[in-house]
Write a structure and sequence with these properties.
alpha+beta, two-stranded parallel sheet
């Protein structure tokens, strides 16, 4: 396989549930996400004062804020060869509401403001970050020295050490 099943994440919202079920049956333990389910019990960054479920209303919001933090603290970059004409406006035009628990603007509201264009490219990027977080169990730090090498499940329970070590000594800033 080019991608092992545990490193594949698919959208299982609506009709995607069938695709997810078939992939799990035929391919293995793939990661699935329903964007309307609750946020996870894990933290996005080690320095966060609370788990995602306490900070964000739904999984969709957790994914968008995870992407924001990964970009802000240099854990996510893309090649200059990646086409960004659609992606960058989608990443910068999504609205959110702050408060006790933040909430990202619903997709249909975004589409109404964007001449019917869905934020598909941006959703793919948020799903990619979700996959990295869930498959690796890695919790980055705002300061790279604070990054956690311990793996945590969705319930926040420790599940052992990560096989992959990601810290300041083995990152590549030009990717």
């Amino acid at each position: 396989y080019l991608v092992r099943p545990e490193w594949l994440c698919v959208d299982k919202t609506g009709a995607g549930q069938g695709v997810y079920d078939l992939l799990r049956f035929e391919f293995g333990e793939v990661i699935g996400l329903n964007y309307s389910e609750g946020a996870s019990e894990s933290k996005i960054m080690t320095e966060d004062h609370a788990n995602a479920s306490e900070l964000y209303e739904r999984a969709q919001t957790e994914l968008w804020f995870a992407l924001r933090k990964f970009i802000e603290f240099n854990y996510f970059k893309h090649s200059s060869a990646v086409p960004t004409e659609e992606l960058h406006p989608q990443l910068t035009n999504r609205r959110y509401r702050a408060g006790k628990r933040a909430k990202v603007e619903p997709k249909n509201d975004y589409q109404a403001r964007s001449q019917g264009k869905a934020p598909d490219e941006a959703d793919a990027v948020t799903l990619f970050i979700h996959c990295v977080r869930k498959a690796s169990g890695f919790i980055p730090g705002m300061s790279h020295e604070n990054s956690s090498e311990t793996r945590y499940g969705d319930d926040g329970e420790e599940i052992g050490s990560s096989e992959a070590r990601i810290d300041i000594t083995n990152r590549h800033d030009d990717i």
